[in-house]
Amino acid sequence: MLYGAAFAVGVVPRWLFPEPILQPAITLGIGVMLLCAGAALAVWGNHVLRQAGTSANPSLPTTALVVTGPFAFSRNPLYLARTLLYIGLALAMNMLWTLVTLLPLLVVMHYGVIRREERYLELKFGSAYRRYRATVRRWL
Length: 140
Known about the structure:
Largest sheet: none
Shape: elongated
Low-confidence stretches: none
Radius of gyration: 17 Å
Distance between the termini: 23 Å
Structural class: mainly alpha
Mean pLDDT: 93
Number of domains: 1
Strand content: under 5%
Oligomer: single chain
């Protein structure tokens, strides 16, 4: 919901100030590549979570500490996937203002979502999560 809301907020000023980012041919190509990368990462991450018997839904309890697949190189590959999708869509649509709203979104994600999830996982999985956190970066 947060990603969609931030994107929508970025669309509004575009109607008033329709500033393109770059030439449409450039932004479309890069945007499509990022959309594909984000979608592939999201599918992979969700598949690995299902294999581990846990849900990708952050409102449901986590039943397993997943450290394989994309979780081996990022503690938040699904948020990374959403960010790639967001940037890809902004570039494909050549909408500068949606990229401007990305920074506040990432601040909210970091402090309001990710840090809270990390505290939850540390309480639930203890030293196993602390070891994982020490060896795998938060984003990349």
